[in-house]
Specification:
Shape: globular
Number of helices: 18
Structural class: alpha/beta
Strand order of the largest sheet: 1-10-9-8-11-12
Distance between the termini: 77 Å
Length: 430
């Protein structure tokens, strides 16, 4: 397991930790370009061929769209306990995102006779990408679909890779039914992104796509970003546990492992100025590993020996500075006074406070959105929210008296910038 002392790290190793597995997808770009152009040219035929090649599932064009009966069957086939959990999570997520909704329209008077404001409307359509590579992820559909529904998007399309039976997993179908989404297509990967970017005979063209994916999906989004809005950067998962000497090693160990189990390209870091806490926590992690399946144990072990590990700093202030520089997707604050620490955190996709708010809660049921910027983009991006599904139009109005009040200033600025017709429009107006 990696255990670093921050003041002893070489610049090269520090940059490796900061960079994680995130940004270099250039090796996937040629394939993303090739597949995307083929889908643009041949539509459904190309999508079906690549689905057979990469997902090892043979479908017909008629089978690509999930039928209403398939949704109903999947919902009913799922066990009641899981259905109830999904419904409970959907309720909390809806409550949180409903609170985000802005006014439909507002105005303010900026001067006598001059009024301006904003009108907010939902975007006309959106594609939600629900990955499947390492399992079934109904929580991703909840985190994408609920705010889209709350925002009032008229047409919501879901694409998700089929399972080995050529079906969409029951948990995802149940989540779709619970939140009221019906347009679901059994396609993912590069071909899925290309299909919604260009539109095919079966799959509708969309103006925006949101949702996490693997390196192939990320490459496809970059290649196709001039054809479709690709939203926030959402790559391999990452988390920092920010702890001090008062933290409970048992809880720290459990939470440190959460993001590590996502896969070998994820990053799970414990950042603390307490070397004693690290000494107590590491054996607990090793003990807990025995309780995991072989696959998850391998993921956690690989993670903590590559992009993850412990970073020992010189003080809580230095730990906070490291966090703000790293800008993690998820972070937990396990300090003696977490709300005081919160005030100092500037860059993080989400901030979870105290001993009883593990990432698990926010990933699934607490309410805040768990689709967050990764790779340091939390410095400039926010989590998915209703605002990803809304757009704002500025509105302005001037009375005749208001126009007379400002025409001289408008003409002066137009003339200094050399825009003659701009100036003429106010100078000659009767």
């Amino acid at each position: 397991m990696n255990i670093y002392k921050l003041n002893e790290l070489s610049e090269e190793k520090l940059q490796f930790i900061m960079r994680r597995a995130e940004l270099d997808i250039t090796e996937f770009t040629p394939l993303a370009t090739e597949v995307s152009l083929d889908v643009k040219k041949r539509g459904d035929a190309a999508v079906l061929e690549y689905t057979a090649k990469y997902d090892r599932v043979t479908l017909t064009a008629e089978q690509m769209k999930v039928s209403a009966q398939e949704i109903e069957t999947g919902y009913n086939r799922l066990d009641a306990k899981t259905r109830d959990a999904i419904a409970y999570a959907a309720k909390n997520i809806r409550t949180f995102h409903a609170k985000q909704m802005p006014e439909d329209m507002w105005f303010t008077h900026v001067d006598e006779g001059l009024m301006c404001g904003e009108k907010t409307t939902p975007i006309v359509d959106v594609c939600l990408y629900v990955p499947r590579g390492k399992g079934s992820f109904p929580s991703v559909l909840l985190m994408l679909g609920v705010p889209a529904v709350v925002a009032g998007v008229p047409r919501i399309t879901v694409i998700t890779p089929p399972n080995e039976k050529g079906e969409v997993d029951d948990a995802i179908l149940a989540a779709a039914k619970i939140i009221g989404i019906t347009d679901i297509y059994k396609v993912g990967g590069i071909q899925g992104v290309a299909a919604v970017a260009f539109g095919t005979e079966t799959i509708p063209k969309c103006h925006k796509i949101l949702g996490p994916g693997n390196s192939y999906v990320t490459a496809a989004k970059r290649v196709l970003s001039s054809y479709i809005d690709v939203g926030l950067p959402a790559g391999p998962s990452e988390c920092i546990i920010l702890a001090d000497e008062h933290a409970d090693p048992e809880k720290v160990a459990l939470d440190w492992m959460i993001e590590a189990e996502h896969g070998p390209d994820s990053a799970a870091l414990l950042v603390t100025h307490s070397a004693e806490l690290v000494e107590k926590t590491v054996p607990i992690v090793e003990r807990q590993l025995a309780k995991l399946s072989d696959k998850r144990r391998e993921f956690v072990t690989t993670n903590l020996n590559t992009y993850g590990g412990a970073v020992i700093t010189g003080s809580l202030e230095e730990s906070v500075a490291f966090v703000n520089d790293y800008a993690p997707e998820h972070m937990e604050v396990m300090t003696e006074r977490p709300f005081e620490t919160l005030e100092k955190i500037k860059n993080a996709g989400e901030i979870l406070l105290g001993d009883y708010t593990p990432v698990t809660l926010c990933n699934f049921v607490l309410g805040p959105n768990a689709i967050l910027p990764t790779g340091g983009f939390a410095k400039t991006f926010s989590s998915v929210s209703v605002f990803d599904f809304l757009k704002r139009s500025s509105v302005g109005y001037a009375t005749r008296a208001g126009f007379e009040r400002v025409r001289g200033a408008a003409q002066a600025i137009a003339e200094v910038e050399g825009f003659e017709t701009h100036a003429l429009a106010v100078k000659e107006r009767k």
